[in-house]
Amino acid sequence: YHYNLFHLTGIRLAPKEKLNIPVLFMPDAMTMYKAEVVFHVMKENGENWTYDASAESNKDLNRNVSLAEDGGIQGILWRYPIHGIPEAPQQKLVVVQCQARQRIEQRVEMLLFGVVPDGRNSDTANTANCEKTTDLFLLYHLGFSEKVEFLYELQYQSNEIRSQLESLVGMNLVEKEWDAESEIVTLIFNVVFAPNKPMRSKATLVVQWVTGGVWKFPMLFLATEPEVDDVINIVAVGLNKESVVGFKLTSQTR
């Protein structure tokens, strides 16, 4: 499973004492790896816990205990499943710039390095695929087909930035190219940015392969000052006399 797990035996724990178990994850491909950490606890004096075998047994209970010959519980097991999801180093900043009250539409190219073809690590990939509907990450992408190989989401630094940008930014995947030899996937996104005022806001495009592996692309949405609406000329009617010019402002919203 590409995990280095320390095998600990003969450790004595006092009541309510804590034990830290080191787990080292060293992935060699951008795909999900799975393992299980199992703790087996027995009484120090070698005695067993009482166990009524005639009672209706629970499958989970039977899986997590080791029974002695006399029917007592010799040991209790705690099982902790581990999912290792490799994350690529943060990529180069992508800047999308537009003048306020204008609209820009541009193609943005994202390169995903280290994507192995389907033939490699197939057992791990298939296992991940079978359980992908329960992965927390996928819950944010309701509406995607299960055949989609890559999932993406634009994440914001705060809810305030989300409320500011969500209605101004549109992003969708328009092209995908997989080079199995170089293990590089090229994703091309169509980005629409229509700012209504000057701003400088950051976001992160998070891309996940359905078999595991996460790439993060920082993005900067920059809106510059808008064009001048009009020029107001005020002509003096004389010294120490007021000159008045009127103009109307119309609100874009309620």
Summarize the structure.
This is CFA47 protein. This protein is mainly β and 254 residues long.
Instruction: Work out the oligomeric state of the chains in this entry.
Output: single chain
Distance between the termini: 58 Å
| Architecture per CATH nomenclature, i.e. the level-2 architecture of the largest domain | Sandwich
Radius of gyration: 30 Å
Shape: elongated
- What series of H and E elements makes up the topology? EEEHEEEEHEHEEEE
The number of strands is 12
**Which regions have little confidence, pLDDT < 50, spanning 5+ residues?**
1-5, 119-148
Q: What would CATH call the class of the largest domain?
A: Mainly Beta
CATH topology of the largest domain: Immunoglobulin-like
**Share of helical residues:** under 10%
Strand residue content: 35-45%
SSE topology:
Layout: E1 3-5, E2 23-25, E3 33-41, H1 59-63, E4 65-67, E5 73-84, E6 94-99, E7 104-113, H2 122-130, E8 150-156, H3 159-165, E9 169-179, E10 184-193, E11 199-209, E12 214-224
Parallel strand pairs: 6-12
Antiparallel strand pairs: 1-2, 3-5, 4-5, 7-10, 8-11, 9-10, 11-12
